[in-house]
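Batch 3, record 17
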Amino acid sequence: MTKISRRNLMKGAGLATLATLASPALAADKVKIGFIFLGPIGDYGWTWAHNKGRMAVESELGDQVETIYVENVAEDASAIPVLRDLAQQGCKLIFTTSYGFMDQTIQVAGEFPDVKFEHCTGYKRADNVSTYNSKFHEGRAVLGTISGIMSKTATLGYLGSYKVPEVVLGVNAFALSAQKQNPKAVVKLVMIDSWFDPPKEAAATETLINLGCDIVTTHTDSPGPLQILEQKGLYGFGQGADMSTFAPNAHLTAIEDIWGPYYISRAKALLDGSWKSTDTWDGFKEGTVVIAPYNKAVTPEAVAAADKVQAGYKDGSFNIFTGPIYDQDGKLRVKEGEVMKDADLAVIDWFVKGVESAS
Amino acid sequence: MSLEFIIAAIVTVVGLTTPILLAGLGELVVEKSGVLNLGVEGMMLVGAISGFGVTVMTFNPWIGVLGAAAGGAAASMLFAVLVLQLNSNQVATGLALTIFGTGLSSLLGLSFTGRIVAPFLSVFPDALAKDPIWRVIFGYSPIVYFALVMVPLTAWFLKSTRAGLILRAVGENDLSAHSIGYSVIKVRYAAIAFGGAMAGIGGCYFSMVITPMWAEKMTAGRGWIALALVVFAGWRTGRLLAGAYFFGILMALELYAKASGFSFLPSQFWAAMPYAMTVVALSFISSRGTAGANAPACLGKPFLPST
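Prediction for the assembled complex:
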């Protein structure tokens, strides 16, 4: 992977030059904040949403901070020199915005104790490393609710990336919510081993449709699957951002990731010296997870049920991970009336009953 | 397993195969002329954005495909000037072309991000193209038929035409071809341009047919599979067609196995299959001795006439 690392380094260097050129002489007084992104900022999904958060920081605190970002950073050892590069350029706070940057973040954080790091969706922390995440699964519960009501075949497709807790939680929340509406609902899961691979996402969507799924939800980042669903006259959901422009009829709604408020609060904490290593996991209540406007195809019954789930999360009265919950093998994992704790959710590695997957 | 089910699976396989078949055919001709162009991925991306951009501006996908071919060929000319005129290292220059093409396509694509076009689908009447059975023959984008027609055409060109013979002579022994009066450089320019155009059309299959949109790096490494495919095919067109469908079937099998809940093999195994099979094919070819070694003798070497 040396090739990719070199490419990213060159990009990083190029961007740094651009950033220096673009900013006035005052730049030296501004606090630098760095971001590394997994995908391209034009993916209209995950990275796009993080970049929107970055821009929110710029517009809110632009007179005090300057942001630098590097996109297309691979989730392997090549992320380490990119992170070092950002730290050496003087970034005081660096956001690493994907699970696969976890160990690299911890390693580089050890080398630069004066620089603060924030790792998204991971669980390893240090004195200068915070973690933050969004309760996407709360949004998945809304999508599952809609799907359970609207699916005619009761067979739902789930296009995943990797078996990491975030995706496992999403699958489980989606399946449990669909089963609440239709006990017969099953979820077929395909992991494509990538976050962004439009042709493979499209082929996987066709495969799921061929195996009987009439609604496919995606946990990968491109709008490709929605375009396939649009062509077939079926339904799906946007991931990370409102993708309705790509599929005006198929796009029922989307989970939007709103990172801006969190990024702004952390940047402010850095500026006033109150930054501490924390673990943040926000959802509907804090406004990190937002559901995009419903398509007119969503039935009134589904809208009512979906709104109820959202309201339940906002006032704390609802949690989809409430027992009894059985796993794929039919083993009782959560007893009747028990609610799974966040700490257990964060490391979950088993799928619930009704999920059909290869592993 | 119904007939409709199998046909839907075949349609998916065709979608996965067509881009690598097009890019592979182009690269085969390039390599037959003695040039190794590792920039396929970059040319595909330039083709993808050119095709998409032209379609957005002209509302005509046919012109869009021409634009994709022109874009891919233009990108390949950059490589051609460097390796043919300046005798730069072909491997390094090809890799540079991939990096350059990735960056250039991202830059060109900035103003097209978030836009869509109507997918460039079958031109046959809906009664045939959308029929659950007949779509197996009539339900594809014109690019698919173009790719299939280009296979025998390329084979015929290389095998039975004078120009094809010259091209192969240039690839097998450039000095001899030069000494009897053929312009090695001109032939290689033409071959590289053809390779670029085919990679460009392969690239626009992603941005105009499968997912009609532009997204950075949307070819996601298919250019490398096309390169492996040429080696896997032992530089033969017929085997290239078979190999492309073999790779396409492997890619579809991975998805079907996962979606059906089979977990007898880890998914990484499936993803590595095209490359692993290329190594197996290479070992097989070389184990048969020189008779089976089909690689053009001058592949990757700069043309340095003594005079």
